[in-house]
Amino acid sequence: MHSKSILLMLISATLITLNSQAKPEREDRDKNRMPPAPDQIIERLDIDGSGSIIKGEAKGFIAKYFDRIDANGDGKISEEELLHARENRGQKPKGGREDIIAADTDQNGAISIDEATGAGLKKMVENFDRMDADGDGQISEEELRLLRKHTDKRKRDIQ
Question: Residue 131 belongs to what domain range?
Answer without folding.
Answer: 97-158
